[in-house]
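Target protein
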Amino acid sequence: MTVVDVAAEVVANRRLSDDYNVVELAAPEVGEAARPGQFVMVKASAGFDPLLRRPFSIFEVVRDAAGRVTGITLLNKRVGVATALLSALRPGDRVACLGPLGRPFEPVDPPAHAWLIAGGVGLAPFATLAQELARRATSTTLFYGARHAADLHCVDLFERLRVRLVVSTEDGSRGDRGFVTVPLERELHAPGGTRVHLYACGPIPMLRAVAGLASRFGHPCHVSLEQVMGCGLGGCYSCVVRALDGSRTPHYVRSCLAGPVFDARDLVWDELAQGH
């Protein structure tokens, strides 16, 4: 795997709402090597607060009119110091960017259907996955959940890729009222016999629920964990999780190396849930 460390120039910073934005970075070396579901470690400031880089899923691989890769984008939600710095970036600023890192998603081919389940900023790894699925002509559905309708972003990007959209909000302001698992379970109950592969990213309780539904209905499921990481290269051991090996024996793995994408059957969900 090719990993590069670049001082990427900010090309644009598109505001989606008070808390959400999409930052475009001129990092063609990263974009060329990136696969769906991989991430980068970024630092938007030369100072010591924060001291370490933070992980962000690669949202889009950007191409010019001739199809050449020119960089990547990051979907950011402002929740702390690092994300606030990323929110405030301006064109011409520089960002330390290391990547692409981690285990990617493996897209399925027809006749299988791909169902993407995103909670909030968990939408981030699915733009590149949806693009790859579209290239393979795989039928794709995005189950997208958020607290409010105002927190649903970049829907048009998926619509352009002919992704079927199923929306839910916790307050009922758009789509189904409740968690994203409400419409997911309803559609899993629907008769058909279609072979479905589930891909999920979001908070641990949501991922655990999706994994349970996948097991109950007999569908394969891969999840992308949003673990806190200090280095992204496996050196700091800050992102360890318990997983099952080939003999189904629990052991610790570093999610920056063994993940962030895991087969949902291989994770020890009880221990993951205790940390959230």
Remarks:
- The longest strand covers residues 4-15.
- The chain has two domains: 4-101, 113-274.
- The mean pLDDT is 93.
- The radius of gyration is 18 Å.
